[in-house]
């Protein structure tokens, strides 16, 4: 399936695996690259920029296909050394970066001078248009269905994607709620040039998380996520569990971030992935978990999505036009 996105990034399939904290490591990203899709290592999963350099090297030992790095820029009291992570990405000669979380303007010129293509992920048409004006190469737009940060506008993909298509001239991909070939065809029909997935890749054989987490995703349906941090206007969609319920309750009762700080620390989320105790902390999952019923290899998943999409276009859709 050839689109403006596959042409620009030189990949075979119009599918990306977005950054995933604690999950976007060499094993998964190399498998995605080997499948002909585009995977992104998650820079901040690595404790230091030097560790990121090593992780890029480790990925290269597992694939000769291109891959990228996600740089998530979030407001923080003690921000990570973003400039040093940026330099590690540039020095390693990585061809693609996915920026997310905030306006990428501070990083764009350096990435572009190094010949790196920047895919900026955002959650609203106005931010997508802004990123286009800043000169990013492509946009990934996350609908309300997505895992992680959906923003505060609550616009699902069915409206967000065509609204973005009306305003963007650069290639863009649709993100949030995609898990199969039906979603890929829908995204293309709505005007996108491909899809980005997180939750679906979280539940693959190469995803470096405990099997109990994958079993939980298969058992859960589309109802079992929570939106935490809503009153703080920093909403995150996460897997519903004992901790997420507590956080929602405390904040809706008027609590402050300090009242939930210990519950939401990142290390607890990491424990979930490492030990399989799905109630140990906050971990990220989207509505697409309702469409997940198995643990394929990445190669099986990507070829299944593309084959299903092609079959829908050639068979089901054709019947409507005679
Ligand atoms: C476990 C997990 C961790 C994530 N961490 C990040 C992150 O660190 N940075 C980021 O930009 N997006 C992150 N995301 C969001 C994904 O990159 C992607 O935008 C989102 O999952 C798309 O929605 P979907 O899960 O419905 O496919 C994460 C998603 C998951 C499932």
UniProtKB/TrEMBL annotation:
Superkingdom of this protein's organism: Bacteria
Flavoprotein found in the keyword field: yes
GO molecular function terms listed in the Swiss-Prot or TrEMBL record: monooxygenase activity
Enzyme class: oxidoreductase
This enzyme's EC code(s): 1.13.12.-
Pfam families, sorted: NMO
Keyword terms of this UniProt record: Flavoprotein, FMN, Monooxygenase, Oxidoreductase
Family matches, as PANTHER family: 2-NITROPROPANE DIOXYGENASE, 2-NITROPROPANE DIOXYGENASE-LIKE PROTEIN
Protein name: Nitronate monooxygenase family protein
């Amino acid at each position: 399936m050839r689109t403006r996105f596959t042409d620009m990034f030189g990949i075979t399939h119009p599918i990306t695996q977005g950054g995933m904290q604690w999950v976007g490591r060499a094993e998964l990203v190399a498998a995605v690259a080997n499948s002909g899709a585009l995977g992104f290592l998650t820079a901040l999963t690595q404790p230091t920029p030097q560790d990121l350099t090593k992780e890029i090297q480790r990925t290269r030992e597992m694939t000769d296909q291109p891959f990228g790095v996600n740089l998530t820029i979030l407001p923080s009291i003690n921000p990570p050394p973003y400039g040093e992570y940026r330099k590690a990405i540039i020095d390693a000669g990585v061809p693609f970066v996915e920026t997310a979380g905030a306006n990428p303007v501070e990083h764009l010129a350096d990435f572009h001078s190094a010949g790196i293509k920047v895919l900026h992920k955002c959650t609203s048409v106005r931010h997508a248009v802004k990123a286009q004006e800043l000169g990013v190469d492509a946009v990934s737009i996350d609908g309300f269905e997505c895992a992680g940060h959906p923003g505060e506008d609550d616009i699902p993909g069915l409206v967000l994607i065509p609204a973005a298509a009306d305003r963007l001239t650069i290639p863009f991909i649709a993100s949030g709620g995609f898990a199969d070939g039906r979603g890929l065809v829908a995204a293309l029909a709505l005007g996108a040039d491909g899809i980005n997935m997180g939750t679906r890749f979280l539940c693959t054989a190469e995803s470096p998380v405990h099997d109990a987490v994958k079993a939980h995703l298969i058992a859960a349906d589309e109802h079992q996520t929570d939106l935490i941090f809503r009153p703080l206007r920093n909403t995150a969609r996460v897997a519903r569990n004992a901790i997420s319920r507590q956080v929602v309750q405390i904040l809706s009762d008027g609590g402050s971030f300090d009242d939930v700080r210990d519950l939401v620390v990142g290390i607890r989320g990491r424990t979930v992935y490492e030990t399989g105790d799905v109630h140990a902390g906050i971990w990220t999952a989207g509505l697409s978990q309702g469409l997940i019923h198995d643990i394929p290899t990445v190669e099986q998943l990507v070829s299944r999505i593309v084959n299903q999409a092609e079959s829908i276009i050639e068979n089901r859709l054709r019947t409507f036009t005679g």
